[in-house]
Amino acid sequence: xxxxxxxxxxxxxxxxxxxxxxxxxxxxxxxxxxxxxxxxxxxxxxxxxxxxxxxxxxxxxxxxxxxxxxxxxxxxxxxxxxxxxxxxxxxxxxxxxxxxxxxxxxxxxxxxxxxxxxxxxxxxxxxxxxxxxxxxxxxxxxxxxxxxxxxxxxxxxxxxxxxxxxxxxxxxxxxxxxxxxxxxxxxxxxxxxxxxxxxxxxxxxxxxxxxxxxxxxxxxxxxxxxxxxxxxxxxxxxxxxxxxxxxxxxxxxxxxxxxxxxxxxxxxxxxxxxxxxxxxxxxxxxxxxxxxxxxxxxxxxxxxxxxxxxxxxxxxxxxxxxxxxxxxxxxxxxxxxxxxxxxxxxxxxxxxxxxxxxxxxxxxxxxxxxxxxxxxxxxxxxxxxxxxxxxxxxxxxxxxxxxxxxxx
Length: 408
Ligand code: KMH
Ligand code: ZN
Description:
There is one protein chain. The chain is α/β, with parallel strands linked by helices. It has two domains: 6-129, Thiol Ester Dehydrase, Chain A (Roll), CATH 3.10.129.10; 137-403, Aldolase class I (TIM Barrel, Alpha-Beta Barrel), CATH 3.20.20. Helix content is 28%, strand content 29%. It has ten helices and 21 strands. The protein has helices spanning 28-46, 163-176, 196-209, 226-229, 258-270, 283-293, 317-325, 342-351, 376-388, 396-403; strands at 6-12, 18-20, 24-25, 51-60, 69-79, 83-96, 107-124, 142-145, 180-183, 185-186, 192-193, 213-216, 239-243, 247-249, 252-254, 274-279, 302-307, 332-337, 355-358, 365-367, 370-371. The strands form six sheets. It has an eight-stranded parallel barrel, surrounded by eight helices. The chain has a five-stranded antiparallel sheet with strand order 1-5-6-7-4, with helices on one face. Strands 2-3 form a two-stranded antiparallel sheet. Helix 4 links the parallel strand 12 (213-216) and strand 13. Helix 2 packs across helix 3 (196-209) and helix 2 runs parallel beside helix 9. Bound molecules: (5S)-5-amino-3-OXO-hexanoic acid (KMH) and zinc ion. (5S)-5-amino-3-OXO-hexanoic acid binds at residues 148-150, 217-219, 221-222, 241, 243, 249, 254, 278.
């Protein structure tokens, strides 16, 4: 279920709403509107009107008068077993105009609107009254991209490099809620590599420590040949990435020509691996559809939207919503957003019913200026957020089922 819902009421404050001198409407009237908004949200979520328990904050920011039109909007931000936390905003969209020489009927359509009240509060729907299962949302599959090809030890000392370091990090991430490890490997000197032996060593070390789906990269690093990039497929990983098109990648070009995509896909299929489709642009979804039409790929498809790479599509809410709207039916999707976009895009994806990838490959910071001590704290935060909006976090077995990965 998509928890990212809002509900908006629009209505006119009449003379009967004016309570104080100067036709002023009392603040409690805004709270009454928020109560109705909250009730609508609870009905949509639970099939029950629920109850308002408490406001944790209320701010009155501008006067409301008879004749004003108010738009009151609310959104659910956190879902517990019975509690539903919401934020509210009331805006004046039309205001009666007062002043010397103006008719009593003078009014203005306000653009931009004026925020008159903001609030945050918690409602409760007792379990027995919850008629809809919020659990209809699939468990959230969290992927940890623990190393990547670009980040260096000079940028963060927390980057795992050796097979043992990768395995320890994978184990920490699994304990924090990751069911998929997106894996690159490095030479002992830290340079990115796609060598089969290095991947095999990392896979073996990870398997000894954790039951996770290992998704090996076939993207490697910019400039690698196709044969080089295909190196990890000799390990027959459960999953492997398939990059769906050529993009600018910062100041470089990440080349994925159409013949290369088809060749890599054929090798992924031959390895018995499930492809994760990396989309850096809208047209990459169309390319996946072409691969299905050509009989090279069969559904359900698993997309990862890689957002915020300089030179490719931006990490914005409207982008995510549009990409999701373009997916073939039955597809699963996740968001991997880089840098400071990782947290907000992860949270958006989890609210919208999607999956998320976090980790040092895409973002080395936990907060502004604070390095993440590995990828596990980023996974833990995503898992906490998923639960806060009523999603469970997929176990590895659940993730295998959701992604169509057969036990080996
Ligand atoms: N390192 C990037 C150039 C993938 O893993 O499939 C490509 C990448 C994508 O990381
Ligand atoms: Zn990667």
